[in-house]
Automatic annotation (TrEMBL):
Keywords: Ribonucleoprotein, Ribosomal protein. Belongs to the universal ribosomal protein uL13 family. Gene3D superfamilies: Ribosomal protein L13. This protein is one of the early assembly proteins of the 50S ribosomal subunit, although it is not seen to bind rRNA by itself. It is important during the early stages of 50S assembly. One of its GO terms (biological process) is negative regulation of translation. NCBIfam families: rplM_bact. Part of the 50S ribosomal subunit. GO terms for molecular function: mRNA binding; structural constituent of ribosome. This is Large ribosomal subunit protein uL13. PROSITE patterns: RIBOSOMAL_L13 (PS00783). CDD domains: Ribosomal_L13 (cd00392). SUPFAM superfamilies: Ribosomal protein L13. The gene is rplM.
Length: 151
């Protein structure tokens, strides 16, 4: 009789990764981050469990988009009051709160349920190169979002 493998909570180890967003494409970077948060890069992946790792993103203000997206891509939020819709462009939000751009992109790629909300808390985004998570001994993870372009 075959049985489906289910990882136990104690058998799961959660690592910390640092990703540098400088010069990276927003969407391709967000998909890689979402896969790591979800745990899809591990053999112990289970869709209904939190098997993912913690991700620290630094240099969020240096993420790039292609084409005219910096002036045409809109971010909307609503205060909940009548007439409370606020919109701003990618360039304006990047100047004001660059962390929110990556957070919104990754959150949209996570499940829309309690598991997705739990996974989202494992994402830490910082505008500059410094982060306060040195005690967790994070590993540096390089993601190449621009294939064919070598430094």
């Amino acid at each position: 009789m075959q049985k489906t493998y289910l990882p136990t909570q104690d058998s799961l180890e959660q690592n910390w990764y640092v990703i540098d967003a400088e010069g990276q494409r927003l969407g391709r970077l967000a998909t890689e981050i979402a896969m790591i948060l979800r745990g899809k890069n591990k053999p112990t992946y289970s869709p209904h469990m939190d098997t993912g790792d913690f991700v620290i993103v630094v240099n969020a203000e240096k993420v790039v988009v292609t084409g005219k997206k910096s002036s045409q891509k809109l971010y909307r939020r609503h205060s909940g009051r009548p007439g409370g819709m606020k919109t701003e462009t990618f360039a304006h939000l990047q100047a004001r709160l660059p962390e929110r751009i990556i957070e919104k992109a990754v959150k949209g790629m996570l499940p829309k349920n309690s598991l997705g909300r739990k996974l989202f808390t494992k994402l830490k985004v910082y505008a500059g190169a410094a982060h306060p998570h040195d005690a967790q001994k994070p590993q540096t993870l390089t993601i190449d979002t621009i294939p064919g372009e070598q430094d």
